[in-house]
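User: Hey, quick favor. My workstation is busy. Could you predict this chain's structure for me?
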Amino acid sequence: QVQLVESGGGLVQPGESLRLSCAASGSTLRYYPISWFRQAPGKEREGVSCITSSAVNALYTYYADSVKGRFTISRDNTKNTVYLQMNSLKPEDTAVYYCATVSRCSKYYVPESIRSWGQGTQVTVSS
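Assistant: No problem, here it is.
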């Protein structure tokens, strides 16, 4: 079973950038669609982004409307890692960010599609 570890979170000011990493062990990540989710205090978990499996010819990406144009998801199969580049961060992006293997991609949080989770990484955007 694949184990996922997120990293790259931290405290930044509005307008700054962070790059989150989702590294895998125990399996080759390229065969899995990978999603990023986030959960802010007192709020429900929400979908952020998803990238389809590298096992198919074309890669597709999905983004929540709230992050479209600011966040970019990518995968580096040589490093068995998926990234989430987050630019122009806003205070409302503050949350714990999780990566997960999913059965299929969506820009939404679909609990029944989750196969395995990481432990999460905290992102705080504050002046």
